[in-house]
Amino acid sequence: MHQSERTFDRLVSDALEAPFSGWDFSYLGGGKRTEEPPWSYRDIVRNAMHGIGSLLDMGTGGGEIFSDFAPFPPHTCATEAYPPNVPVARARLEPLGARVVPIVDDIDIPLPFDDDEFDLVINRHEAFNSTEVARILRPGGRFITQQVGPRNEIEIVEWLQGPGQPTEPDPWCLDYVVQQLCDAGLKTNDAREASTKSIYLDIGAVVYQVRACPWWVEDFTVERYRSRLLAMHRHIEKHGGFETTESRLIVTATKPLR
Questions:
Q1: Given strand 242-254, what is the order of strands in its sheet?
Q2: What's the distance, CA 125 to chain centroid?
Q3: What pLDDT band is residue 213 in, cutting at 50, 70 and 90?
Q4: Quick check: bond before 74 cis, omega within 30?
Q5: How many CB atoms lie under 10 A from the CB of residue 150?
Q6: Which single residue of 32, 69, 117, 225 has CA 20 to 30 Å from 256?
Q7: pLDDT band at 250 (very low <50, low <70, confident <90, very high)
Q8: Is the CB of residue 167 less than 8 Å from the CB of residue 215?
Q9: What single DSSP character describes residue 68?
Q10: pTM of full prediction above 0.85
Q11: Quick one: average pLDDT of 240-247?
């Protein structure tokens, strides 16, 4: 076996054995470099937290990002729809004073919260129902969402499956999100989108990422895509990395005072 292929097998084996819990991508720290969008989600949320008494994080994963915002206001909750993430989030967030609420993965089901319950609702990369967001926000309350935009890192999908793969239209573009919030009666304060670059430095990072996001390539296994992965590995060895384009958008909105 050629040395390049032995290296490929080692990197892939390590990625397949690496644990994945909550929404923690720390394993990728040494294998992927990602440009940040021209805004800081953390800074925007922290600025909005001044003086609030209630806070909700939608789709907290394992609480990895949300825990950074502690100390929390007196009434703080987080939702999570993926059952294996719930105990991870509870172990991380409940000692900090946040109640983790399991929900069903269906945005058409009402959220288990009262009308006008929260001063601030935040959402990072989680689908949402704008009408429900408006309902649980108090008058004058704010909603902040960062979303993954259309065709995010499509270069990986096209490398593995070929260019021009038929895909369902992705409605989560900036105009769609803004329109949904406006239709729900919220006033948009800020709406931006950006494309940034990511570079995968080894094939193990690619395998880990695709397995963690199975909707990218729904029939993915290393065995099924070995030839294309091996070609990508050799591309990375030759060029120093595999470059992709990340799509992000951020919107902040306010519920008008009555």
A1: 32-34, 187-200, 242-254, 137-148, 118-124, 54-58, 75-80, 99-102
A2: 4
A3: confident
A4: no
A5: 17
A6: 69
A7: very high
A8: no
A9: G
A10: yes
A11: 96
- pLDDT band of residue 170 (cuts 50, 70, 90) is low
Nearest to 255 by CA among 171, 130, 146: 130
Report, in this order, helix, strand and coil percent for the chain, each rounded to 5.
35, 25, 40
Question: Could you tell me which residue, 214 or 146, shows the higher pLDDT?
Answer: 146
How far apart, in whole angstroms, are the C-alpha atoms of residue 26 and residue 203? 16
The CA-to-CA distance between both ends of the chain, in Å, stands at 71
Instruction: Give the pair of three-digit tokens for residue 62.
Output: 């394992």
The token pair at 130 is 């704008």
Backbone angles phi, psi at 21, to 5 degrees: -135, 140
- Give the list of residues 6+ apart from residue 253 with CB closer than 8 angstroms, or none: 142, 143, 181, 186, 187, 188, 189
| Residue written as token pair 């996001």 | 213
59 φψ region: left (φ > 0), alpha (ψ -120 to 50), beta (else) = left
Which domains can be identified in the chain, with CATH numbers?
Answer: 3-254 (3.40.50.150)
Nearby residues of 86 by Cβ (< 8 Å), 6 or more positions away: 80, 100, 102
Range list of H helices, the chain: 3-17, 41-48, 85-93, 130-136, 154-161, 174-183, 203-212, 226-239
